[in-house]
Design a protein that fits this description.
The chain has 167 residues and is of the alpha/beta class. The protein has one domain: Rossmann fold (3-Layer(aba) Sandwich), CATH 3.40.50. It is built from seven helices and six strands. It has helices at 3-7, 24-32, 51-57, 69-80, 87-99, 115-119, 121-137; strands at 12-17, 36-39, 63-66, 102-108, 143-147, 153-155. It has a six-stranded mixed β-sheet, with helices on both faces. Strand 2 (36-39), helix 3 and strand 3 (63-66) form a beta-alpha-beta unit. Helix 4 crosses helix 7 (121-137). The N and C termini lie far apart (36 Å).
Length: 167
């Protein structure tokens, strides 16, 4: 099974990963498969970081979102000592993606030997932070991990069944 065929099972795919992970070819392939591509701005809404994402997820059709509030959850603490996104907002976002028949695609890149010394400690800390974040999110939304260097994929954790909501 190819990654594209795996992802076409979902109506929504959120592509997220450490800075420097190549994603353009993957996003272009999803666009060819009928996904509407949305790239989110690097800056967050100043009052409600999740607002643009809630609006985006309310649109009809197949959707791939490149970049999300998860990046802020990882890099905020590393660069500013705190995140402008709370865990509650991130978990609400994950549940909204799941409710839209979606998944999160966690892009990783196994660093070559000696790479950490060249790129600094932040790269290793970010890699570890993304792993922790996606492990927690996998309790709320399907998460597929793709190592862009090797092309290997796999699920993270087992998503918890969503509680039914009164209709």
């Amino acid at each position: 099974m190819t990654l594209a065929s795996l992802l076409t099972r979902y109506r929504t795919v959120v592509v997220e990963g450490q800075e420097g992970t190549r994603r353009d070819d993957l996003v272009a392939e999803l666009a060819r498969l009928g996904f509407l591509v949305r790239r989110m701005p690097a800056t967050l809404h100043h009052l409600d970081p999740a607002l643009p994402y809630r609006e985006l997820l309310s649109a009809p059709g197949r959707l791939v979102v490149d970049g999300s509030i998860i990046r802020e959850l990882v890099y905020g603490p590393l660069r500013r000592g705190r995140s402008r996104v709370t865990w509650i907002q991130a978990l609400d976002f994950a549940e909204a993606v799941a409710e839209r028949d979606g998944a999160m695609l966690h892009l990783t890149a196994s660093p070559p030997a000696g790479c950490e010394q060249r790129h600094g400690a932040e790269a290793a800390e970010a890699r570890a932070a993304y792993a922790r974040v996606f492990l927690a999110l996998a309790q709320h939304v399907p998460v597929v991990t793709l190592d862009v260097a090797s092309g290997t994929t796999g699920p993270v954790g087992a998503p918890r069944p969503r509680p039914s909501r009164p209709g």
